[in-house]
From TrEMBL:
It comes from Mameliella alba. One of its GO terms (molecular function) is iron ion binding. Residues 180-308 form the Fatty acid hydroxylase domain. GO terms for biological process: lipid biosynthetic process. This is Sterol desaturase. Keywords: Membrane, Transmembrane, Transmembrane helix. It is found in: Membrane.
Length: 341
C-alpha cells in the first residue's frame, strides 16, 4: 500500500497521518452529526471491540468453570485460567511482533517511528532489549496480576458478594453496559494514568512503561506491577456497578488484549491488496513521544477538556510547547519566590 496517500513522511523517515486525530468523539457534538456518528460507531465496534467481545464469549463458553467450582479458590481452575490467559497473550501479541517487527513484513510503511527497537539497544531495558523487557514483564507479573484480579472477581460473584444481574431480567441495561465497557476503561485509565504521572509515582512506577519511547507490541503491558494492579483494577468496577461476570470478563479482555493497538507503532497493518486494519494508535504514540499529552484516547474527552489533547498537527505542537514553557516558568517563579536561607 502507498502510505503517502494517507499521511506524510519527514526527513528522518517518520510517518504521520495527514488528518488530525479527533480528541472528542462526535456524539458530544451539538447539533448532532448523524453521518459522523455512524462512521465513528463503525470504528468503535470494528474490529477491536468486537474482537475482544468475541474472545470474552469464547472464554465464557469454554474456559470459565461452573459457579459451584468458582465458589472455592482451588489451584485447578485458577492455573488453567492463568495458562490460557498467557497463551492468548502470547499468540495475539506474538502475531503482531512476528509480522511487523521480526519479519518486518511491511518495512516502515505506516510506521510512526522509522527505527526498529531491535536496532537500538538501551540500558533502560532488562537485557538492554525493549522486546525482551516487555515480554518478561508481561508474563512475570502482567498476566498473573490480570488473572488474580479476574479470579477474585469470579469468586466474589460465585459466592454472592457482588450483584449478578441476569440477562433475562435486565437485557437492555446489560446491553448498555456492554456498549459502555470501552468508556469505563477510558475513564478509569485516564484517572489512574494522571495519578501515575505525579512525579513520585512516575519515577517509581510509570517510568517503566515510558521507557518505550518508540513502542512496539511487547510495550503494551511493559509495566511496573503497581501499574498492572491499577490498570487491571478496571474489572473490579463490575463488582460495584449493576453488572454481571461476563461483562467483567469482557472488561478484563478489553484491558489485556486491547492494550495492543495503541502500542503496535504502525497506523495500519496491511493485510494484502488494498486491505488493512486501522490501529487508531497515533494519539497514544504521541503520549509515548511527548509524555504530557493524550492521557486518554478521546472516547471520553478529558484531554480535550483539560487542554492536554495533541491531535498531531503543528498547531497542537505549538500549544504543547507553550504549555511546557508556562509550567517551567511557574516552577522557576516558585523557586525564585522561596525565601533565602
Ligand atoms: Zn502506553
Ligand atoms: Zn503515561
Amino acid at each position: 500500500m502507498d502510505d503517502l496517500k494517507h499521511g506524510t513522511r519527514d526527513k528522518r523517515g517518520n510517518w504521520a497521518p495527514r488528518d488530525p486525530v479527533a480528541g472528542v468523539a462526535p456524539f458530544y457534538a451539538l447539533p448532532p452529526k448523524p453521518m459522523e456518528l455512524l462512521a465513528w460507531l463503525k470504528g468503535y465496534l470494528f474490529p477491536w471491540n468486537l474482537l475482544f467481545f468475541i474472545s470474552a464469549l469464547v472464554y465464557w463458553a469454554w474456559v470459565i468453570p461452573p459457579v459451584a467450582v468458582m465458589q472455592t479458590l482451588a489451584w485447578g481452575w485458577v492455573l488453567k485460567l492463568l495458562a490460557l490467559n498467557a497463551l492468548g497473550i502470547a499468540l495475539f501479541y506474538g502475531a503482531f511482533e512476528l509480522r511487523l517487527y521480526m519479519q518486518r513484513a511491511q518495512h516502515t510503511r505506516f510506521k510512526y517511528n522509522a527505527k526498529f527497537p531491535a536496532d537500538q539497544k538501551s540500558g533502560v531495558f532488562w537485557f538492554n532489549d525493549q522486546q525482551i523487557d516487555g515480554a518478561l514483564r508481561t508474563f512475570l507479573h502482567g498476566v498473573p496480576i490480570w488473572t488474580a484480579l479476574e479470579v477474585g472477581a469470579l469468586w466474589a460473584y460465585a459466592n454472592g458478594y457482588a450483584p449478578w444481574l441476569a440477562w433475562a431480567d435486565h437485557p437492555v441495561w446489560l446491553a448498555l453496559m456492554v456498549f459502555l465497557v470501552p468508556f469505563i476503561q477510558e475513564a478509569h485509565f485516564y484517572c489512574i494514568h494522571r495519578l501515575i504521572h505525579v512525579p513520585f509515582l512516575y519515577k517509581h512506577v510509570h517510568s517503566v512503561h515510558h521507557n518505550s519511547v518508540n513502542p512496539s507490541p511487547w510495550s503494551s503491558l511493559a509495566m511496573h506491577p503497581v501499574e498492572h494492579l491499577l490498570y487491571f483494577g478496571v474489572g473490579l468496577w463490575h463488582l460495584i456497578l449493576p453488572s454481571n461476570p461476563f461483562i467483567m470478563l469482557f472488561q478484563m479482555h478489553r484491558a489485556a488484549f486491547g492494550a495492543i493497538p495503541g502500542h503496535v507503532g504502525f497506523d495500519k497493518m496491511e493485510l494484502g491488496g488494498d486491505r488493512a486494519i486501522d490501529m487508531h494508535a497515533y494519539a497514544h504514540y504521541l503520549h509515548h513521544k511527548y509524555f504530557e499529552v493524550n492521557y486518554g484516547d478521546g472516547i471520553v474527552p478529558f484531554d480535550a477538556l483539560f487542554g492536554t489533547w495533541h491531535d498531531g498537527t503543528k498547531q497542537a505542537d505549538e500549544k504543547m510547547k507553550a504549555r511546557f514553557r508556562d509550567k517551567k516558568a511557574r516552577a522557576n517563579a516558585r523557586k525564585g519566590g522561596m525565601p533565602a536561607e
